[in-house]
Every structure is written in C-alpha cells, then in structure tokens.
C-alpha cells in the first residue's frame, strides 16, 4: 500500500473534524440545517487553513444522498454514499475545482461557465470552486459577474483566496464571505498530538511544539513538516532532530540573551551572539524565538495569574518565561519585542548576518528605558531622606512612573525625586513644583538613578489636587503612563488632507466606531486616481466592514476611491495629530499656571519649578 502523506490522510471529511475554524463551521452548519443557502461563498485565509477542505465538505453537504439514498441537504454528510465518496476522491462530475493561479484567463473562466447551463448530472447541485480567485484577470472577473450574480438555482460558487484585497468589490459584494483564521500553535499542537497517536509514531512533546510553531498557523504546513520530521528522525520525533531539521535555535540561548539584556550585561550578549555563530544557529530564527518569548512574557506581565495556570508539563518554557517576565519591566519588554521584530528585516541587508544580529541586540541595550536600572520608589525614598534642603512635611512621594502615587491631604507639601520628562506622571493628579530644572528629552543613563550629591538634591513641592488610590498592580503600569512625548510630526500634504477629511467625517458622524478607529489610526501613504493606500500598525484595525464603511463615507464626500490597507509603521495619523494638538494645549495650560501670581510666589519662595505634564488643561 502506498504511503499517503499526513496532510491528505488527515484532511477533515466532515465539519466536525475541522480544527480551529469553529466560527465558520457553525455558520455553515446553521445555513445547511435551515436550508438558507447563499449561491456564492468566499473563503479567505492564509494557505493551509482549510479553504479547499471546507469547500469539499460543503459540496458533500449539498449533494449527500445519505447511506440509504434518501438523504437531503445536510450539515453532516454521511461519507458513504456515492456522492460523498466521489467528492472525497475527486471524481464527482458536478464538483469542479479551478485553480485560478494557473488558469487566469477569460477562456478558462468562460469554458467553466459554459458548463453552468447544464443541470447537474449526478448530484443535486453543481459546485464550482475557484481557488486563488484573486489571480483572475479583470476580463475573467467581468465574464464571471453575470453568472455570479444570478446563477441557476442548481449552481453554487465557492471562491477561495489568500488575498481578498485583490478581489474586485463587484465580486466581493456578491459573495457571502468567511474568514478562516490562522491556527494558534496550541491548536496545531493538539491536532499533531492526536494525529501521531493515531499513526503510532513516538514523539517528544517539545518536538511537536517546535513543529507547531514552525507551521505559522497553517495546519497543512504542520502536517507536511511532521512528515518530513518523521522521515528525518527515522520514524520518531525527537526534539534535537526536529530542531536540527528546522534550523531553530535552542531556547536556552534565547533565555540567556533576554536575561543578559534585562540585566544590561553587554558582555554576555556579545558572547552568546558569537556562540550562535560558532554553532551555526540562524540569526533570523534567534530573533524570531526572542519575539516569541517576549510575547509570552508580555502576556504574563499583563495577566500575572496566567503564570499559576501555566502547565509546566506541557510547556517546559513556562518557568523561564515567568522568571524573565519578573526581571523586565513591561515597557522594556514591549521595546525589545519591537526591536527584535524589526531587526529581522535588517539581517539580509548587512554583509554579515551575525554582525547584524549583534547590532540589533546591542541596540536593545542602547535604547533601554531608564526604569530598568532600579526600583523607582526605593531610589526616591533614599533621595528624600538624604536631601538636607528638603521640606520635611507629611509627604506625597511623586513617582516617576506614576505607580507609587500615594494619597495625601490637600494642601500638604511634599518632597520627591526628579521626574524625568520621558515618563510623565498621570496628568491631572497633582500640581508639582520642583526646585531643580527637570531633565528634558531622552531616558537617563542607569548611573544617574543613584541619588545625586546632596547640594544638587532636587526637591518637589506638590500640591495634591485630587486623591488617587495607589494602583494595585505595581509592576503593571498602564500604557498611557509609559508613553513619552511623541516626536513632532513632519508636515505633509497628504497628512493635512487626511486629517481634515477624517475630522470632517467624524463631525458628520458618517462613520461608525470601527471605521472611525481605522480612519484615526491610519496614515494616508498614497493617493492614486482610483485607489488610496492607508497604513495602520495593527492588523486588527483592518476589518472588511470598517473598510467598507470608510469607503462609503469617503464616496459621500466626493472621493469615490477604493481603499487598500497595508500594515506598517505609522508616523502621521489623525490620532497622532490630535494627540500633538492636545499636548500643545497642555503646554499652554502649564504656561498659564506658571504666570499665575500665587504660583509665582510659591516658585520664588521655594525656588521651585512646575513639573511639566502634571496638570490637565480644563
Ligand atoms: Zn453522503
């Protein structure tokens, strides 16, 4: 008997067997059970997530005759009738799959459509499945439109694409659209485990974990890689073999690197990078593994209770991840993640991949946020006690990170450590007045977090305006407390235009919340005659419904264009402009306070200064 590859052997044959696409499966099952069937379906999603599979199951559901030949349309095709068997083996005359990647032209589409006039030969429905439909030429799309709009009642279209943005709106609007999600590594892992149990192939859990990660959300890739690994490992899956096959980096190196970065230990960083070169480990997968670990750390930092529920039997990395998560502040984790992610793109540009890797890692050290070096509260208390000129009254300790904020009676005067401008305390909490000029700009070097000499010991006089309970999670600062002042936005015509347009749409209330978020967070990067390109940083913002609403609202303003969304860095978005304007108002408000005679008196009396960013404009 010939060997059937895992991806084909374990291709789901019913909706119930489909993994990780519950939302799509449920919608289709409901439609089939209630017989509310659309005539055209569009399945989108990356490769290997089940687009073809779902199409075949749908064809079976429509055509299944049941084991006794009496069945009708069903959400649970029997798998034993002639129709089911023929569709599974690719011999069903009324089910046609056309691969648009290799049949792009109008001729291929037309010859397919010519068959549409004939009633099904064998089944209840003819099903035309067009895979990678975005590859069709424009003429081919146009040839298809008429039939797609009003097909004969015995004809169903199933379109599939990895790139729905390239599918014309005229086609999209005629289809019921389903997005198949990339699968989470845990889902893939679970499936691989059950497949290998069924195949009786011994496998180390860590080996499967590596394969599940390498598959990047594609079940087909996961199964193909597993086939390859079984051949490589001569019938068993061992962690070392799989690691070797994938060229992936031992997590030990990755943990060591992150720990060294957390501790600011440059020597270990350089040594480890050289060890990676010696061992022939890939620089790209080092950064990739680092991002995976950093992501897990960030989750733990945001949701510490996850650490307790993590099962060290299924995830051998859990303990190390938790340890590193406690070593590194959340903002630094974010920064490292971002630098690692973007650093991957640089590797190919440098003549020496490992030199580039070393540079990326050292950049992490160079841009380390100041907060990492010492616990802000302890440093401040020290400064407070040692500063001889300090006004000794019941004190509010102003924390640089805004996390050690303690309630104090109104009108008390307090003493605190220098507040770096890059980490402003939450606005509106108190009006703080300082004796020393406050550091402006970049993060301070670690050495400066030591208490400064007594003569220069800065004093803060804080007049609490509002009482703020101390946050319960000391180690998890809210994101808005971490953000420093944004760099000025360079002027641009597109930026001006987009800001004005978005403001107008919001004022006219012509867009809903999702579309508004997309509009506010996006940068207009190109304006062609019939298409505008917007860039957003988060894929999440790019929802088809939001895009559609925004397109409509723009059309209402006389801009009848198609919108294309790309994912990337955003410098100039309406949201950022609004933030900059708010910052400017803040500056003006501080200016006003500064010129207030009473405050001026205070400042003269105590040789004090206002801490920027500590008051809120009315
Ligand atoms: Zn059947």
UniProtKB/TrEMBL annotation:
Biased composition range(s): Low complexity: 443-458
Pfam families: DNA_pol3_delta2, DNA_pol3_gamma3, DNA_pol3_tau_5, DNAX_ATPase_lid
Domain of life of the source: Bacteria
Residues of the AAA+ ATPase domain: 37-184
Record-level GO cellular component terms: DNA polymerase III complex
Keywords: ATP-binding, DNA replication, DNA-directed DNA polymerase, Metal-binding, Nucleotide-binding, Nucleotidyltransferase, Transferase, Zinc
Keyword Metal-binding: yes
GO biological process: DNA-templated DNA replication
GO molecular function, one term: DNA-directed DNA polymerase activity
Record InterPro entries: AAA+_ATPase, DNA_pol3_clamp-load_cplx_C, DNA_pol_III_gamma-3, DNA_pol_III_sug/sutau_N, DNA_pol_III_tau_dom-5, DNA_Rep/Repair_Clamp_Loader, HLD_clamp_pol_III_gamma_tau, P-loop_NTPase
SMART domains the UniProt entry points to: AAA
Enzyme Commission number(s) from the entry: 2.7.7.7
Catalytic reactions of this protein: DNA(n) + a 2'-deoxyribonucleoside 5'-triphosphate = DNA(n+1) + diphosphate
NCBIfam families for the chain: dnaX_nterm
Quaternary data: DNA polymerase III contains a core (composed of alpha, epsilon and theta chains) that associates with a tau subunit. This core dimerizes to form the POLIII' complex. PolIII' associates with the gamma complex (composed of gamma, delta, delta', psi and chi chains) and with the beta chain to form the complete DNA polymerase III complex.
Name recorded for this polypeptide: DNA polymerase III subunit gamma/tau
Source organism of this protein record: Variovorax beijingensis
